């Protein structure tokens, strides 16, 4: 059936419904974000199509005619059903969508390459990502899971440990071939060190790393600084110097040989990478958390241990 030939335009019908419900052309215009005259024109268009007066415009407030009362009952029922069906479809889509926030470097170097496994296991779930340039990834309304670095304690949140972080100096094979290997933490002071700026000191930097090994620095540490970890890692990959590699940002490059350990002495941190959620009642959130817990446990039992020996012990679960 060609409905456009048998019913007034939808815009006109929405104007009729609004005027009938609000008993005012002006208020209907405000609700529909248009002018009073535009609403009046739309109602007139519907009345002309129907060849029937729907409203008594001389009444105050505006009143429905007998024909208008009968017609609006059918119109309201149809619009209510259409609205309910629309909401059901939108809700169904939302139930199949998972939105994850993550730090930019973790998202780019660790999470994205692994999400293909989740897609394979749960093809019906669409994963959207929101990245945080600095600081903690958000859990704003609309965010289902945040991937966060820390100690697992955030108010009003439930945290699931994915892995404890470790830090290892890394560089490209080309840089090592050009400058020579290092035999001790002290040796690194003669190298070009790559720095990632951060106001959050829970993100380990070179000053903390040298302090951990008891190495005294006589002046500013050498090397260029970058305003985020992702750029620093790109500089290391291009052979510009030595970076502090994290499990979440360096593992894949170490396995592929694009980066190599400069010293095989990883620093094991108290902090780790957590999947954080406010609500665990959603099946899609639980599916993601359970899948990633199993994935990370399997990954670290295998190839990851080659470069992060501290992970040989079973991973603790929160």
Number of helices: 11
Radius of gyration from CA coordinates: 31 Å
CATH class of the largest domain: Alpha Beta
CATH architecture of the largest domain: 3-Layer(aba) Sandwich
Detail the poorly predicted runs.
Answer: 310-318
Number of domains: 2
Distance between the termini: 60 Å
- Given the helix and strand composition, which structural class is it? alpha/beta
What is the approximate shape?
elongated
Largest sheet: 7 strands, mixed
In terms of DSSP E residues, the strand content is: 15-25%
Walk me through this protein's architecture.
The structure is a single chain. This protein is of the alpha/beta class and 318 residues long. Helix content is 44%, strand content 19%. It has helices at residues 3-6, 10-22, 25-31, 36-50, 66-95, 104-121, 173-179, 206-212, 229-237, 247-256, 283-301; strands at 55-56, 63-64, 97-103, 126-132, 145-150, 158-171, 195-196, 225-226, 243-246, 260-261, 267-277. Strands 3, 4, 5, 6, 9, 10 and 11 form a 7-stranded mixed β-sheet that branches. The longest helix has 30 residues, at 66-95.
Notable characteristics:
single chain; 318 residues; alpha/beta; Arc Repressor Mutant, subunit A; D-Maltodextrin-Binding Protein, domain 2; 2 domains; seven-stranded mixed sheet; two-stranded antiparallel sheet
């Amino acid at each position: 059936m060609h409905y456009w030939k048998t019913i007034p335009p939808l815009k006109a019908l929405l104007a009729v419904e609004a005027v009938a419900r609000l008993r005012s052309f002006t208020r209907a215009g405000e609700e529909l974000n248009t002018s009073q005259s535009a609403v009046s024109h739309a109602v007139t268009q519907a009345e002309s199509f129907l060849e029937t007066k729907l409203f008594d415009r001389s009444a105050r407030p505006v009143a429905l005619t007998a024909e208008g009362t009968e017609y609006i009952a059918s119109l309201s029922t149809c619009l209510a059903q259409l609205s309910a069906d629309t909401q059901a479809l939108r809700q169904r889509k939302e139930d199949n969508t998972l939105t994850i926030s993550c730090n930019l470097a973790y998202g780019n170097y660790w999470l994205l390459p692994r999400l293909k496994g989740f897609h394979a296991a749960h093809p019906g779930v669409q994963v959207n990502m929101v990245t945080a340039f600095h600081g903690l990834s958000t859990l704003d309304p609309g965010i289902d899971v945040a991937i966060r670095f820390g100690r697992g304690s955030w108010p009003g949140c439930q945290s699931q440990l994915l892995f404890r972080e470790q830090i290892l100096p890394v560089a490209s094979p080309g840089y090592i071939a050009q400058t020579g290997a290092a035999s001790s933490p002290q040796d690194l002071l003669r190298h070009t060190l790559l720095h990632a700026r951060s106001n959050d000191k829970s993100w380990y930097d070179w000053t903390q790393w040298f302090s951990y090994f008891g190495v005294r620095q006589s002046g500013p540490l050498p090397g260029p600084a970058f305003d985020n970890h992702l750029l620093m890692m790109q500089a290391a990959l291009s052979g510009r110097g030595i970076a502090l590699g994290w499990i979440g940002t360096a593992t894949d490059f170490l396995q592929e040989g694009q980066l190599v350990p400069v010293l095989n002495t990883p620093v094991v941190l108290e902090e780790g990478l957590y999947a954080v959620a406010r609500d665990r009642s959603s099946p899609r959130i639980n599916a993601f958390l359970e899948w990633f817990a199993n994935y990370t446990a399997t990954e670290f039992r295998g190839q990851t241990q080659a470069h992060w020996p501290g992970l040989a012990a079973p991973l603790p679960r929160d």
